[in-house]
Design a protein that fits this description.
With 667 residues, the chain is mainly beta. 8% of the residues lie in helices and 29% in strands.
């Protein structure tokens, strides 16, 4: 196992999202920056705003903007007084709104759940409590209600230095502060494993405020030890077999569930992302999986689970890592059901799986691979969605075609099918069947010549205007020779947003058009090259777009990850972004998180009267704790949000935002 407990160690689990592997793409496929530069170097951007270009002309006549969004042609689609950007230990929301903490790490979920006691943590207690580092949020109505439903929440990872007392010391080393981090006990590792996974919990709005229903019959915790089934083309393959599961069809647990989705038939989709951090041990250099694992940065060894459980030690279970990195589907209507890892959707560092029903009834899922220089995907089901028969839809995700995006200089995008036997995906290149192709999705996409992107994260289709929004968070590994008009900085620190329109307004199309909606960062700094509209205020710009949501009015909301004292001088938050008309590329700050936190979610209730947001890892300084002035750990936290009690640590939480007096958000 990698020794990361040296006196000058950093909190390695905090770095999974920032490091996200050692830039593992070995190809010379063109980067998105190079393509954008070639496309736009021959024509300038309009000062302070992107032109509404020819892409608008390709929108299907069926792509109608809703009545609530119609005024975008004359001005902003958003009506709220903007929040002031900044950094402190609290959360803040725009004037006229309430932001109430709904669920905190450790909150009881069942009638027999113990109350949270941070000094007496156990795996048994954690499995009956809300998990750690809430990320994706979904809402599934009960009886069609916008005020009574199931909240589904991913728990991406754990930060042991914020969770457990007594494991961190700050010492002087060569005149500088350094950290000594004690190894975790098996009992603490068990708590970490229980705090991963997901939560399904019944919630109800009462008197204008949301409440958890602790005796909800569908409430459930899913963890790193929940039994799951592998299904689809790779199920039962030799490369997925282990000593504990010689069938290659049964997996224990799910890891690093980042963004996700809710299917049209009302199931919960969890996306496994940075799985590399959980594995330790070494494979022989000539092992058959060595190249496969190197492409995913496995093993990285941020977690100590391999010291206590053989399945996370590659030297003992070399195939175990192939059983992670998939999309997991959960039937929320049956709390005893076995979650299924849908291998037809590919194996990589999944950031989300947002879906939309196409005109012909097939269902399309957009998938980002969250690593620098990796790819944008979409999966199209073979079968069609039956709105009148839920049971008929329950295996749609086991059969379909996964595609990877190739962007061209002329503003076109082609979706390349990832299918065994087509093009280079043959035995000559080491693929024996479709299972091999899906287990090594990244290598298959490499060979197809997909476009290398700047950390593709959340991808959101918009049924209202027929467009697809791709969040590209940043790329700190962009080299100086790649600086160009669309990425005018070495190390693309602030990211950008791509907008796609599929041909004919058909989300199943294999071709479409693309445009840059926004290049992010501070527009007042010329060399940054940000392209927010001139109507965007000093509070309205942002960097590092990560998660996003489209509300029922068809409006785009963007959450960020990576802002802070060093990067932007402001915390992460939720911004409302205009995409239509004269206000296009105007952004306004609506909500911001406490110091050290990341903004996740967001999710709008079906009636748009609640915005649910997830505040992840508050108080975490990560690698850049010097920029915060000091390290932040259990005994000496930079914030004790949300309880602000001396005996309570910082607690990742879901917040419900509502308009004072009622009504729709930002209308």
């Amino acid at each position: 196992m990698t020794d990361h407990r040296s006196p000058d160690a950093r909190f390695r689990t905090s770095l999974l999202e920032e490091n996200d592997g050692p830039a593992t793409n070995p190809t010379d496929n063109r980067t998105m920056g190079e393509i954008i530069a070639s496309r736009f170097s021959r024509r300038g951007f309009l000062k302070g705003s992107l032109a509404v270009s020819a892409i608008a002309a390709t929108v299907s006549p069926l792509a109608l903007v809703s009545a609530d969004n119609a005024r975008a042609a004359e001005g902003s689609a958003f009506s709220f007084d903007e929040l002031e950007a900044g950094i402190d230990d609290k959360h803040h929301v725009a004037p006229g709104y309430d932001a109430d903490v709904l669920l905190r790490w450790g909150d009881p979920l069942f009638a027999d759940s113990p109350e949270f006691d941070p000094t007496k943590q156990s795996a048994e207690a954690q499995l009956k409590q809300f998990g750690y580092n809430n990320d994706y949020i979904g809402y599934i109505p009960i009886d069609g209600s916008a005020e009574h439903g199931l909240l589904v929440v991913n728990h991406e990872y754990t930060n042991s230095h914020l969770m457990f007392p007594g494991i961190v010391k700050v010492v002087d080393k060569d005149g500088k502060k350094a950290l000594e981090v004690a190894p975790l006990s098996k009992e603490q590792v068990d708590v970490e494993m229980a705090a991963h996974g997901g939560t399904i919990v019944e919630i109800r709005k009462d008197g204008g405020k949301w409440q958890v229903v602790r005796d909800g019959k569908l409430n459930r915790r899913i963890s790193s030890n929940t039994e799951m089934a592998l299904s689809g083309p790779a199920a039962g393959h030799d490369r997925l077999k282990t000593s504990a599961d010689p069938s290659g069809t049964k997996v224990i647990g799910t890891l690093n569930n980042c963004a996700g989705g809710v299917t049209p038939w009302g199931t919960y989709v969890m996306a496994e992302e940075n799985i590399h951090g959980y594995f330790s041990g070494e494979l022989p250099a000539d092992h058959k999986e060595a190249t496969n694992y190197k492409r995913l940065g496995i093993p990285e060894g941020a977690y100590e689970w391999g010291a206590h459980y053989d399945r996370f030690d590659l030297a003992k279970e070399p195939n175990e890592a192939n059983r992670f990195g998939w999309i997991v589907e959960v039937d929320v209507n049956d709390p005893t059901s076995t979650p299924r890892k849908r291998t037809a959707m590919g194996r990589f560092k999944h950031e989300g799986a947002e879906s939309i029903v196409a005109k012909d009834g097939r269902v399309v899922f957009y998938l980002g691979d969250d690593e620098r220089f990796d790819y944008v995907y979409k999966f199209v089901t073979k079968g069609t969605f039956n709105p009148n028969d839920r049971a008929a839809n329950m295996n749609l995700l086991d059969d379909g075609t996964l595609h990877v995006a190739k962007f061209a200089e002329d503003g076109s995008v082609e979706w390349l099918p990832i299918v065994f036997g087509q093009g280079p995906l043959t035995a000559e290149n080491g693929f024996a069947d479709q299972a091999d192709v899906l287990i090594e999705t990244r290598r298959a996409a490499d060979l197809l010549g997909a476009t290398k992107m700047d950390r593709p994260e959340d991808i959101q289709p918009n049924a209202g205007n027929g467009k697809v929004y791709v969040m590209l968070t940043n790329n700190s590994k962009r080299k100086a020779e790649q600086v160009d008009a669309a990425n005018p900085r070495a190390e693309n620190a602030f990211g950008h947003i791509i907008e796609i329109v599929e041909d004919g307004g058909d989300f199943t199309a294999t071709k479409g058009k693309w445009e840059v909606l926004l290049k992010c960062g501070d527009p007042s700094v010329a060399e940054v090259g940000a392209t927010f509209s001139t109507a965007t205020t000093a509070n309205g710009w942002f960097g590092m777009p990560d998660n996003c949501a489209v509300d029922s009015a068809g409006r785009l909301w963007v959450a960020t990850d990576g802002q802070g004292p060093k990067a932007t001088g402001r915390t992460d938050g939720l911004w409302a972004v205009d995409t239509e008309g004269s206000a296009r590329a105007t952004s306004k700050l609506f909500f911001r998180v406490p110091i050290g936190a990341e903004m996740c979610g967001p999710l709008f209730a079906p009636d748009d009267q609640t915005a649910f947001v997830a505040v992840q890892h508050p108080g975490d300084g990560g690698e850049d704790w010097e920029a915060f002035g000091r390290p932040s750990y259990y005994e000496d936290l930079s914030t004790r949000w949300p309880d602000f009690k001396p005996d309570m640590p910082v607690r990742p939480s879901v917040v419900a935002i509502t308009k004072q007096g009622g009504g729709k958000i930002a209308i």
